[in-house]
């Protein structure tokens, strides 16, 4: 019995050891498995909920507005829903499209200039015999399209020489010759960048000037949209204190894209509003301050002096980087006289040529640059909020000549 007890006692002891060995083995296996899972190399396509790191823009550069194609191709990641508060207070601020490539999109708006100027010249130059009568017609076509007398003479002279050299002309050669000539007259080498980037802590300041009804306020609003679309922060100055509606109009433009609008009392001092707008821009650390001024007749000396004062007062606070003269393309040679007087009072650095849509007088681009020695930087091609485009000479000439 005792012996039996001894044997069974030994058996229990062996069972006990076996049990411990099995437990140790299982624990060891689990530990090795855990270590393997922890240190296993991550595969290429390992799914992750982390957003990829944002590329850092080099110092001083603004991050580019994302390109739509890039957005469409991006992998979808489910983000946690925004807090309920944000959902309720969703801002009604529009995100305008970037400015690049706008002229290509709007080129069909040059249809009237295209048939009057481009196609007219192509047809005349393609004739078998180019006698004096045809050259007179070519001259007339250019003058009617507002190219201006001096540039017209230069173009006709150049074309006569080129035709002599060419002799018989194929349609492709005629087109090439005309394209080259028009482009040369538009001077594609001119610097057309609008200075809207801040310098250190100081925002760029753009002053918008011109006679009544040329489209100053509209152009100021459209430019602000384009800049916001390109990723900039903008403040608008409503220095047109004569017309309350102008400040309201600008306020609407600003509100749509989330740009602050600085305005003053009706009939107040426009220079003081301009000064306050620039001060606000500096405080808010924005990229650009655009100051809209009242429309003024170039013949009214008092008003022109006031414009000079607006610029001088801004200069107490910051540099005026850009003075844009807004010209209505449909006003022709009268617009040219206005431009000259404005240029004497404030140093114009660029021209915004509005209402180029629906006019046959596209040649004004050539004459206004020639007369003022200042490049056309922006063109207005419609009444829509995004119908303002950076001027691109090649796209312009190609639109005139057709494809
Ligand atoms: N078709 C067309 N119309 C334009 C363009 N730019 C401006 N306009 C229109 O021109 C009209 C006058 O524009 P405003 O911006 O009020 O002109 P303004 O120069 O500020 O006028 P004042 O404040 O009176 O001096 C408006 O009806 C605009 O919609 C353009 O590029 N094309």
TrEMBL record:
<comment type="subunit">
    <text>Part of the signal recognition particle protein translocation system, which is composed of SRP and FtsY.</text>
</comment>
<keyword id="KW-1133">Transmembrane helix</keyword>
<feature type="region of interest" description="Disordered">
    <location>
        <begin position="47"/>
        <end position="84"/>
    </location>
</feature>
<dbReference type="GO" id="GO:0005886">
    <property type="term" value="C:plasma membrane"/>
</dbReference>
<keyword id="KW-0963">Cytoplasm</keyword>
<dbReference type="Pfam" id="PF00448">
    <property type="entry name" value="SRP54"/>
</dbReference>
<dbReference type="GO" id="GO:0003924">
    <property type="term" value="F:GTPase activity"/>
</dbReference>
<feature type="compositionally biased region" description="Low complexity">
    <location>
        <begin position="57"/>
        <end position="66"/>
    </location>
</feature>
<keyword id="KW-1003">Cell membrane</keyword>
<feature type="binding site">
    <location>
        <begin position="292"/>
        <end position="296"/>
    </location>
    <ligand>
        <name>GTP</name>
    </ligand>
</feature>
<dbReference type="GO" id="GO:0005737">
    <property type="term" value="C:cytoplasm"/>
</dbReference>
<feature type="binding site">
    <location>
        <begin position="354"/>
        <end position="357"/>
    </location>
    <ligand>
        <name>GTP</name>
    </ligand>
</feature>
<dbReference type="InterPro" id="IPR042101">
    <property type="entry name" value="SRP54_N_sf"/>
</dbReference>
<keyword id="KW-0472">Membrane</keyword>
<dbReference type="GO" id="GO:0005047">
    <property type="term" value="F:signal recognition particle binding"/>
</dbReference>
<dbReference type="GO" id="GO:0005525">
    <property type="term" value="F:GTP binding"/>
</dbReference>
<keyword id="KW-0675">Receptor</keyword>
<keyword id="KW-0547">Nucleotide-binding</keyword>
<comment type="function">
    <text>Involved in targeting and insertion of nascent membrane proteins into the cytoplasmic membrane. Acts as a receptor for the complex formed by the signal recognition particle (SRP) and the ribosome-nascent chain (RNC).</text>
</comment>
<keyword id="KW-0342">GTP-binding</keyword>
<comment type="similarity">
    <text>Belongs to the GTP-binding SRP family. FtsY subfamily.</text>
</comment>
<dbReference type="InterPro" id="IPR036225">
    <property type="entry name" value="SRP/SRP_N"/>
</dbReference>
<keyword id="KW-0812">Transmembrane</keyword>
<feature type="binding site">
    <location>
        <begin position="210"/>
        <end position="217"/>
    </location>
    <ligand>
        <name>GTP</name>
    </ligand>
</feature>
<feature type="transmembrane region" description="Helical">
    <location>
        <begin position="17"/>
        <end position="39"/>
    </location>
</feature>
<dbReference type="GO" id="GO:0006614">
    <property type="term" value="P:SRP-dependent cotranslational protein targeting to membrane"/>
</dbReference>
<feature type="domain" description="SRP54-type proteins GTP-binding">
    <location>
        <begin position="375"/>
        <end position="388"/>
    </location>
</feature>
<keyword id="KW-0378">Hydrolase</keyword>
<dbReference type="InterPro" id="IPR003593">
    <property type="entry name" value="AAA+_ATPase"/>
</dbReference>
<protein>
    <recommendedName>
        <fullName>Signal recognition particle receptor FtsY</fullName>
        <ecNumber>3.6.5.4</ecNumber>
    </recommendedName>
</protein>
<dbReference type="Pfam" id="PF02881">
    <property type="entry name" value="SRP54_N"/>
</dbReference>
<dbReference type="InterPro" id="IPR000897">
    <property type="entry name" value="SRP54_GTPase_dom"/>
</dbReference>
<dbReference type="InterPro" id="IPR004390">
    <property type="entry name" value="SR_rcpt_FtsY"/>
</dbReference>
<dbReference type="InterPro" id="IPR013822">
    <property type="entry name" value="Signal_recog_particl_SRP54_hlx"/>
</dbReference>
<dbReference type="InterPro" id="IPR027417">
    <property type="entry name" value="P-loop_NTPase"/>
</dbReference>
């Amino acid at each position: 019995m005792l012996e039996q007890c001894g044997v069974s006692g030994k058996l229990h002891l062996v069972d006990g050891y076996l049990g411990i060995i099995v437990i140790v083995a299982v624990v060891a296996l689990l530990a090795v498995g855990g270590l393997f899972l922890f240190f296993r190399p991550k595969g290429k396509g390992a799914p992750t909920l982390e957003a990829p790191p944002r590329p850092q823009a080099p110092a001083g550069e603004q991050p580019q507005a994302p390109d739509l194609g890039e957005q469409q191709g991006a992998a979808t990641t489910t983000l946690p829903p925004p807090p309920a508060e944000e959902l309720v207070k969703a801002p009604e601020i529009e995100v305008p499209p970037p400015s690049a490539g706008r002229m290509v999109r709007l080129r069909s708006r040059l249809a009237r200039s295209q048939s009057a100027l481009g196609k007219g010249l192509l047809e005349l130059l393609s004739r078998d015999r180019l006698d004096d009568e045809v050259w007179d017609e070519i001259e007339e076509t250019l003058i009617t399209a507002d190219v201006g007398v001096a540039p017209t003479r230069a173009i006709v002279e150049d074309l006569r020489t080129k035709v002599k050299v060419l002799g018989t002309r194929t349609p492709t050669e005629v087109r090439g010759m005309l394209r080259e000539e028009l482009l040369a007259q538009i001077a594609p080498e001119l610097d057309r960048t609008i200075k809207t980037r801040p310098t250190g802590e100081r925002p760029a300041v753009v002053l918008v000037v011109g006679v009544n009804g040329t489209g100053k306020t509209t152009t100021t609003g459209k430019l602000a949209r384009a800049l916001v679309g390109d990723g900039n922060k903008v403040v608008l100055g409503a220095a047109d204190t004569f017309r309350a509606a102008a400040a309201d109009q600008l306020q609407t433009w600003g509100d749509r894209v989330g740009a602050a609008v600085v305005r003053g009392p009706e009939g107040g001092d426009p220079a003081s509003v301009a000064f306050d707008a620039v001060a606000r821009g500096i405080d808010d650390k924005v990229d650009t301050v655009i100051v809209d001024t009242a429309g003024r007749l170039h013949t009214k000396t008092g008003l022109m002096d006031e414009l000079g004062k607006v610029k001088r007062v801004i200069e107490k606070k910051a540099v005026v980087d850009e003075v844009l003269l807004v010209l209505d393309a449909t006003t022709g040679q009268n617009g040219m006289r206005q431009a000259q007087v404005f240029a004497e009072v404030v140093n114009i650095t660029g021209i915004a040529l509005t209402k180029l849509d629906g006019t046959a007088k596209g040649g004004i681009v050539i004459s206004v640059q020639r007369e003022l020695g200042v490049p056309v930087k922006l063109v207005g091609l419609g009444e829509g909020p995004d119908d303002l485009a950076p001027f691109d000479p090649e796209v312009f000439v190609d639109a005139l000549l057709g494809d």
